[in-house]
Amino acid sequence: MSVMERFRLDGKVAVVTGASSGLGVAFARGLAEAGADLVLGARRADKLAETVTMVEGLGRRAVAVATDVAKPEDCQALADAAVGELGRIDVLVNNAGVGTAVPALKESPEQFTQVVDVNLNGCYWMAQACARAMEPGASIVNISSVLGLTTAELPQAAYSASKAGLIGLTRDLAQQWATRKGIRVNAIAPGFFTSEMTDQYQEGYLDRMAARIPMGRIGDPEELTAAVVFLASDAGAYLTGQTVPVDGGLTIT
Ligand SMILES: NC(=O)c1ccc[n+]([C@@H]2O[C@H](COP(=O)([O-])OP(=O)(O)OC[C@H]3O[C@@H](n4cnc5c(N)ncnc54)[C@H](OP(=O)(O)O)[C@@H]3O)[C@@H](O)[C@H]2O)c1
């Protein structure tokens, strides 16, 4: 197999959560370009339908299921739809996430719990549901954040805790499943990329962050997608349990 063939995902089925906007749409596009059929989950069915059209336009099959990843039963239903309609699950990209910035002394238990329910617990419910169906050689890619490794000025206890927790979850599932199930589990820690989430930042915040980034700019979602395809495919066959920052060097500052 040539080195470029290792990146191909022809004949494989990839599940992407949070595929209704932002990075999830870019990941669905990249995985489809690499040859995978897609199973797409998020809460907004109308936006998921647009991603289905995009994937089908690339000549790949796509199935969408309205999913709230905070509900274990929804996660199982998404995995069941993948197996029922496309026959298998080779890749899971745990991308669904919510971002908040609330000062710690003002944050309610409900606000904190809601973020952890989606960003951390949701990834676990999805990993459990998909791993039950996955065969050896499968790959799980968890979308963490540089906020799981460092701070970035805003009060983000819930978000940072959930993303740091996801790095721990990645490590543990990797060691549980490396030989017993033959499933690789890795995480990506993205820096700053334009999306609906980063649209919510106050004016000037991204400029200040860009000034802190050694490469001097925020990232292009396609630069993150390439890393997802690497970890999802046989190109990353000997990597497991790792968290890869894709951040223009932010976490070395
Ligand atoms: N953009 C960045 O700079 C950056 C940096 C580091 C990490 N990240 C991470 O990258 C991931 C994608 O974020 P993004 O920037 O693309 O933001 P985004 O455009 O707001 O996308 C978030 C996605 O998550 C979905 N989602 C939210 N809650 C959900 C739930 N309960 N169940 C199912 N899906 C849910 C949303 O869909 P619905 O609303 O339709 O459910 C949406 O598709 C997140 O995990 C985020 O933390 C982003």
Task: Please explain how this structure is put together.
The protein has 253 residues and is of the alpha/beta class. It has one domain: NAD(P)-binding Rossmann-like Domain (Rossmann fold, 3-Layer(aba) Sandwich), CATH 3.40.50. Helices cover 43% and strands 14% of the residues. The protein is built from eight helices and seven strands, in the order βαβαβαβαβαβαααβ. A seven-stranded parallel sheet has the order 3-2-1-4-5-6-7, sandwiched between helices. Strand 2 (37-42), helix 2 and strand 3 form a beta-alpha-beta unit. The longest helix has 23 residues, at 109-131. The N and C termini lie far apart (39 Å). It binds NADP nicotinamide-adenine-dinucleotide phosphate. NADP nicotinamide-adenine-dinucleotide phosphate binds at residues 17-18, 20-24, 42-44, 47, 67-70, 95-99, 118, 143, 145, 190, 192-193, 195-198. The site of NADP nicotinamide-adenine-dinucleotide phosphate has 30 residues, from helix 1 and helix 6.
